[in-house]
Amino acid sequence: LLVVHGTLHLLGYDHDTPERRAQMWGAQARALTTLGIPLDYVPALENLTDDGHG
Questions:
Q1: What does the alpha-carbon distance between residue 10 and residue 5 come to, in Å, rounded to a whole number?
Q2: Residue 26 above 60 pLDDT?
Q3: What are 32-51's pLDDT values in tens digits?
C-alpha cells in the first residue's frame, strides 16, 4: 500500500481536497486491484486528516 501510495504522490496525485482525494483513492484502488491486493487490507483512512487524526 505504501509503495503504491508513495508512487502516486510522485506522479502528482495528492489528497488535500475532497476531489483530489477521490481521484487519488480511485487510482490507488485500481493499482492495488491490478496487483492482486484485496482492498479489505487497506485501512479506512478517508476520514483522517493529513496529521493522521480523525
A1: 9
A2: yes
A3: 999 999 888 777 655 555 55
Distance of alpha carbon 51 from alpha carbon 6, whole angstroms: 16
Detail the DSSP E strand segments found in the chain: none
**Residue where the block lists cell 491490478:** 34
Phi, psi angles (nearest 5°) of residue 8: -60, -40
Q: Mind spelling out the 3-state secondary structure of the chain?
A: CHHHHHHHHHCCCCCCCHHHHHHHHHHHHHHHHHCCCCHHHCCCCCCCCCCCCC
Q: Please give the C-alpha separations between residue 52 and each of 34, 35, 36, 49, in angstroms, as whole numbers.
A: 27, 26, 26, 5
